[in-house]
Each structure stands twice: as structure tokens, then as C-alpha cells.
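Practice problem. Given the sequence and the SMILES for flavin-adenine dinucleotide, write out the predicted structure.
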Amino acid sequence: MLLYLFVTFRDGIVGVMTLNKREFLKASGLAFTGTMLNPFESGQSAARPGNSRKNWSGNYTYSTDRLDAPATVEEVQAIVKRASKLRALGTRHSFNGIADSTSEQISLQHLDQMALDSATRSVTVGAGVTYGRLAPYIDSHGFALHNLASLPHISVVGGCSTATHGSGIHNRNLSSACSVVELATATGDRLTLSRAKDPQHFAGAVVALGALGIVTSLTLDVEPTYQMEQVVYQNLSFNELGHNLDTIFGSGYSVSLFTDWQHHRATQVWIKRRVDPKQPYTWPQEFYGAKRAMQKLHPVSGHAAENCTEQLGVPGPWYERLPHFRMNFTPSSGSELQTEYFVPREHAYEAILAVERLRDRITPHLFVTELRTIEADSLWMSMAYERPSLAIHFTWKPEWAAVQKILPLIEANLAPFAPRPHWAKLFTLPPATVQSRYERLADFKDLLRQHDPARKFRNTFLESNLYSA
Ligand SMILES: Cc1cc2nc3c(=O)[nH]c(=O)nc-3n(C[C@H](O)[C@H](O)[C@H](O)COP(=O)(O)OP(=O)(O)OC[C@H]3O[C@@H](n4cnc5c(N)ncnc54)[C@H](O)[C@@H]3O)c2cc1C
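Answer key:
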């Protein structure tokens, strides 16, 4: 029997939850004590008021009101076994329907345990853990991750499921740190796949787009902790970039260029260095003609920089320098759209020029573009699969009517470089084109068939982009 529970969440939103009898009794008991949590709340300030049935940015409304929020792995298994269709929901930071379901979603936010094993240099995290929670925890024990995305607010599992990345010419994406995946498969059974014991299938199981099962935990490689500092330079000519692209992107541990596509230049260059206490470093005042900023900057012109991580060469922990945005503040712009295309790094400058030709169409609808490099990996569905990559990212104003007309133009200009779109962002490439960009797609589909023959974890996004021609 299903029961409906009307609840007032912490942020004042009234919502309805569909629950079975046991869930209802448990939840209503909590509600009467006045401590019911918004089941969508990430526990971080990134959860934006008023968007309880939408994604973080508010541009996408989920197609079901039914959200399960189990407290244990056994409850996850029971829900998976019972459900006919199900999609996992992380912290809702994706911009398209990848996490959507017309039937039922499951949030694992209550599975928030973290266990560090310093002997094996690894940490195992429940699927509810965000990078923002994980990072200070491992740092306090003397460990670090190899990289982070521009924001720490996302869940580790949600990030790894879509091949989320940071920057750095030698840095693979975040999912490359994953060594073990534990999930509930379509039957509700537990499955553990590891890099060491399942070399044949593991490369298909990490960036799995939520299609292999409901991930309950991941184990990640960690390394000794480190300090970092970052400096921003302003106005780097694209001519300099054309002549020195690899050196510029290799000039720090993680380097990001921002541009509005006007005046043939990057408006800002963010260089993040690891601090070597034995070799103090003096940041030059100029960088390929760009001038060092003497005050803190936000990548989007006109936005206050208080939301950004510390700049000006001030050293600090790795997890407070690798992301651009601070944990307890809204990252990026807030109400926005995002798009990103991965092209082979060897064609990076040509690809940048190809997009630049559309500058007068792009700029009026753009907050900012970010250019980053990502090292190649071997994960079948990763955008950087076997390709050292340049990622060309667009943070758009929330103007989808205009943006959806520009995307096909960008995709056409990038076509010679066989771009792979970011799985979690907005794109208009035809499914057949997307599919043709993934050499191991057939192996990935075999893996899905083996573990989910009745297509329990398929949704419209996957049916369209992976299966329709
Ligand atoms: C402001 C902003 C900045 C961003 N910056 C970056 C960046 O620097 N680099 C980058 O690459 N991306 C970036 N992104 C995109 C973001 O990293 C991805 O959207 C990421 O997938 C979000 O994770 P999430 O926890 O919000 O997952 P969701 O968006 O909720 O879900 C994403 C996918 O993960 C799956 N999933 C989640 N939990 C589970 C689970 N337990 N089991 C199985 N599948 C699961 C979902 O089904 C879905 O397919 C940014 C997004 C925003 C809003």
C-alpha cells in the first residue's frame, strides 16, 4: 500500500512523498518532531530554495514526484528489487535529463559513511558523500585526492558516473581515482567490481551514467596531502596560446583559461601550483604578456569574487585551491546552463579558433567559457577515453531558446575534431553521432545487458543517446 505524506521542508517548500507503510510511519514520526529533511537537500548551500523537484540550476524539472531516500544498503536493495524502473539522483548538478525518471528516483544521501585505509592509501565513501565532505576528512588524516572539479558540492558517485573532471595536462578525470564500485544490480543483489580483480569489465563500470545499477559506495585512491596556491593572470592573447598551448596548460598542476570569445584573448588564466616547501616560488608579474591580477577575481566579469577560492598566491589546502568555488557559497553563477565539448588536445588550438568564429553569436548569451585540459584515460564511456583532451566549456545565461540554436553551430564547427559532449551538460548532437564517438560502446551495452536485462535503469536520456539511431 502506498501512502502520501505532505511535508514542509526546512526551506519552507511543501512537498508530497509517496511512501510504503513502513516508510510512511518512519517519515511521519520525524515530521511530527519537526526535523524532516528536504529529501533533495544536499546538506550544502548548493541546494537552492524553491527547486525541490528541479535540478540545481532550475533548468530541468524531473518527471516524477516519487523519490526514495533509504538509510541503509539493505533498504537500497529492497527498493531496487521492488522497482520496475529506477534512476539514482545525486546532488542534482547535471543540466539535462541524465538522472531523470518517469517512474521513480532514489537518493542515497543518507549513505554518508567514509572509511580511510591509510595502509592501502584508499578511502571508501557511501554514495551520499560529496567531495566537499570527503576532502577535509581525508586531509585531516594526511591524505588528498589527485584533483577536484570546479565545485566541491557534487556527490562523489554522481561526479564519477558522468566522468566529471578538473584541469591539468597530467590529470585524469575524477573517476580515474576509483578502484572499487559497489552496487545494487537490477535484481537487488550486491555486486562488487574492482580494478584489480575485474580488469575486463571495470573500465565500463565506473563512468556508467547510472545505467549499471544503484552505486552504494566507491573506493578511491588517495595520496599524501599537499598545499597549493593559485594566481590569476588577465588578458592572454590567443596568438600566444596558439604558439605555446602545451606550455601554457602545463605551467601549473591545474590550469584554466576563461574567455568571453571577444578580442582574441583569454580574459583570465587561473594557474594552480602545488607548493614545494623546499623550493619557494615567486610568481612572475607577466605570463606570456598577460598581467598578474592584484585582487581576487570571479571568472564571470562583474560577479563578486567572495564565492571563489583564495587566489593571490596564498598557500592553502589542496581542496581549497583546486575548486574555483568555495564550499559554503553558491558556485558559478547559479541560474545558468552549461555545455562542454571534449576535443583531442593535439587539435586544441584549431578547435578554439573554430568556436571563436561564432563569437558574435555566442557572447550575448554567455556568462563565460572555460578551457581545460584532461589527460587520457581508459574508462569506456569517459569523454577523455584514450584521448588527451581539451574541454571547451560554456556557462550560458538561462536563455535556452537562444542557446539551443547556437549549439548546433558550435557542434558543426567542431565536427572535424569529433567532439564528445559532457554527459551531464546540454548538447544537441544527434544520438548516432554521440554513439560513434565511443569505441567501446558495444562493450558497455553488453555489460548493461548482463546486469540489467529488463532495462530497469534505462531512462529517456539513455534510450535516446545510447540506443536510438
Ligand atoms: C556549478 C556547476 C559546476 C560544475 N563544474 C564541473 C566541472 O568542473 N567539471 C565537470 O566535469 N563537471 C562539472 N559540473 C557537472 C557535474 O560535475 C555533473 O553534473 C555531476 O554528474 C553532478 O553530480 P551529482 O552528484 O549532482 O549527480 P546528478 O546530477 O544528480 O546525477 C548525475 C548522474 O549520476 C548518476 N548517479 C548519481 N548517484 C548515483 C548512484 N548512487 N548510483 C548510480 N548512479 C548515480 C545519476 O543517475 C546520473 O546519471 C558542474 C555542474 C555545476 C552545476
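Check your answer against the key. The pocket of flavin-adenine dinucleotide is lined by residues 56-57, 87-94, 98-99, 108, 127, 149-151, 154-155, 157-159, 161-162, 164-165, 209-210, 214-215, 331-332, 422, 424 (CB under 6 Å).
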